Amino acid sequence: MTKSAQVKFIMFASASCLVLRAGELKSAPVSSPTQSQAALPPAIVPAQSMPTTEPDVSDSEPGSAQGLELVWKLAFEPDRLIGGIVSDPERGVVYALAPAFKAGEFKRCVQINELGKIEREFSIDGGNIVLRGAHLHNDVSRDLLSYTRWTSPLRAVDTNGKTLWTYAQDGSIDDVWAADLNGDGLDEVIIGFNGDQGMHVLDNHGQKLWVWQGPDIGNIDRVTAVDFRGDGSANVVVFAQDEDRALAIFDSNGKRLPNLHYPEEYSPFFRALNLSSTGRQQGMLVSKSGKKRIGALKADGNLAWEFPMALGIFLPDDEEPAPKKPWFVLHNLSFLVVDTSAGKIIAKTDKYESQAKSCWLLPKGESSPLLLRSTTSGIEAFRIVDRTPQYHK
Q1: What is d(CA 192, CA 175) in angstroms, rounded to the nearest whole number?
Q2: Rounded CA gap, 244 and 247, in Å?
Q3: Phi/psi at 84 (nearest 5 deg)?
Q4: Residues whose CB is less than 8 angstroms from the CB of residue 53 and which lie 6 or more positions away in sequence, other chains included
Q5: 218 — alpha (psi -120 to 50), left (phi > 0) or beta?
Q6: Which of 13, 15, 244, 379 has the greatest number of beta carbons closer than 10 A?
């Protein structure tokens, strides 16, 4: 996740896993504690170019892909739901939960390189569908957080599937996010609960650091970390159902700071956006439901930009800003790639599935990440191509 030098913390309101490694040209042999590789035969589809001409990039034409090149496609069994998908930007790999063969259980985790080839797999206890990335101990660059919304405790595991710790409370989990809040290079874990449990902040060992809770707070729907001012400080921002168009803000030690109010008719989506090409200053995605517009909220409560979305947007739980680039993915009837430093749509995919997920894979030695999209038939990797966007701030 983001380091404290780049992050402020925002709060809204396991399984098998695929690992995609960047920068390795030969396929590594697959190893599996469960020896279940035969149940998941990969099929690599040769790369082919998608249209790269200069039609307008619009959210009103879901049938055609624009601004993208298809790099590879990894096919799974048809009509199988893929679970969470998480990248490791330092190692250039992506972890994705492999298709479940038993309803409600995702216990296989497969490692895939940047060419779309499976390297290895491991199992994660719990069979949960949601996956988050976290940096919980110094000898690795990425660990995993696994849970199922409303029904399970939070489980932290390493990338061999070993359980590091679990965290369970009486309330059910709405959302989880990880970020380095204290500057020690390891992530703290933020949990938003449904009901009166409020928000809990844990250290990298799963021990409770501080909480915000009470009978009048309501559900905490989303949590995230955002560096609003670009000064390297880590603030916790909480969206609770009883707050009137305001975000409750805390410092990294739990001290309450002045609320941040967002514009009338807008509502927060609570995921961080990079508002500059350097990634130092961040904002937060907000939307205007009645007029179908989206915008980027700054620390002063004003919008950095906004533009129309004729078809509206759907934001899944697991979106992160792209590494090295000020890009973010929005979902409507396609995936839309937005340049969040300028408020411009720069690319879109050709189709949308309600259960589709996305993440970014940064190949080693490259400055632009690949966009990965999971569907019910597999995982696709796209390269963003230069183009003239339709929407400007």
Answers
A1: 5
A2: 8
A3: -60, 155
A4: none
A5: left
A6: 15
Task: Show the tokens assigned to 273.
Answer: 């956006």
Tens of pLDDT, residue by residue, the chain (393 residues)? 444 333 444 443 333 344 444 443 333 333 333 333 333 333 333 333 333 323 344 444 444 678 999 999 988 776 566 778 888 878 888 888 876 655 557 778 888 888 888 889 898 888 787 888 999 998 888 899 999 888 889 999 999 999 999 998 776 898 898 988 888 889 999 999 988 888 999 999 999 999 988 767 778 888 877 887 677 766 777 776 555 677 888 888 888 888 888 887 887 776 788 888 777 778 888 887 666 788 898 888 899 999 887 766 666 556 788 988 999 988 777 788 999 999 999 998 876 666 778 889 998 888 899 999 887 778 899 999 865 454 444
Beta bridge partner(s), residue 343: none
